[in-house]
Every structure is written in C-alpha cells, then in structure tokens.
Amino acid sequence: MTIHLNSQSDLEDAVHALVKQDPRLKPIFELTGMPALRQREPGFAGLAAIVCGQQLSTASAGAIWARLTAAFDPFDHEVIRKARADRLGRLGLSAAKIKTLKNIARELAAERLNLDVLAEEDADAAHHTLTALPGIGPWTADVYLLFCLGHGDAWPSGDLAVQEAIKIGLGLKTRPTAKQMAPLAEPWRPLRGAAAHLWWSYYRVLKKREGVLASKP
C-alpha cells in the first residue's frame, strides 16, 4: 500500500517510523527536529510550475509563473494545449518548455496520462511514467511526486542537497551520485519521501553551521 504525506501529522508518523526502522537516522533527527511538510499544488498546474522553474532562479521562475497564471485563468491543460506557442513565448517560456507543456497537455487530453493515478502507483513506476514524457527529467518527476502528490516513497536521488547531507550524515568519503543514491535509500522504503524531508532538514542545519556547502539547485 502506498503511504501518503498529505499532512504534517502524516510526515511526523513517517519520520518516527523511519527512526525506528534505521537507527542511523536517530542522531540526524535529534539534530534537526521534526521537518516541516513541503507541499505544492497538484495536477497539471503543479507539474507545469515545476517545469517552468527548471534551471531558473526562484525570482525568474516566479515572475514567469505569475504571468502565465494571469494570462490563463483558470490555468489548466486545455488552455495550454490550445494556446499559441508565440504567445507562451512572449510570457517568458523557452521553446523547450513550451514543447514540454504542450506535450503533457496533449497526453492529459487524450487520457493517456492520469496524474492522480500516479499518487497510488509504486514510486519507481510513477517516476518512470513521468520521465518517459519528453522534457521531464528525474528531479522534476520526483519533486512532483513528493511535493504535489504527497507520495511517501518518492526519492529525489538527483537532489544535490540530499546527496551532500547523506554523504556527511552517513560518513561517506564522497558525495553519492544519483545512481548510488538508490541502494542507499533501500532501508527507508516505503518512506523514502519522508527520509528526503529529514535529509533536507539536516542539510539546512549543516549549511547554517558550516557555511561552506554548495547551494541547493
């Protein structure tokens, strides 16, 4: 059964279960305290917002998203599917992002893609479904599953902050690659999403303490 992190209470239950499940996490939790649940809007709008923010500063992404949602109200896959590419471009979207959003909109309209169903699927299967879409990379898929759908086992293996936190927290010699992150997280199934929240909290503690860690992408 898929576990969901839809409330702070859900996350707290999951973190307590994780600490019992893997004693290595106890000192991490003692240092961080309980993480706060991070949530974003679900559905097409949530995925579109993540796509719009790829490889942009928070300020730039926010400005583009504000223009998009002001221009299309309500903002849904049908209006984006029908929108002219040149209009989307004038609002600040790159050609690649326009192509990605229009492809997602077409898949939803044709009912070949159902974003709600992904919340109930195995995390790895849901990740594969999203990354099979042109323009959707692993990080975007995992962020959507975790923050928009509350998937309790989504695992952002490519996130640099989580990688750095695990390197220090588990005493590794080098920062693990995305590929190496998969076996490292096996002990935390089916709560890898809650583990990610814990590791992000640990990273913030380390960053504040040391002031030398690379910034989170």
TrEMBL record:
GO CC annotations, alphabetized: cytoplasm; protein-DNA complex
Coiled-coil stretches: none
Domain of life (superkingdom): Bacteria
UniProt keyword annotation of Phosphoprotein present: no
Catalysed reactions, semicolon-separated: Hydrolysis of alkylated DNA, releasing 3-methyladenine, 3-methylguanine, 7-methylguanine and 7-methyladenine
Pfam annotation, one family: HhH-GPD
CDD domains documented for this protein: ENDO3c (cd00056)
GO biological process, one term: base-excision repair, AP site formation
Signal peptide, first to last residue: none
GO molecular function, one term: alkylated DNA binding
Record's protein name: DNA-3-methyladenine glycosylase II
Natural source organism: Bradyrhizobium australiense
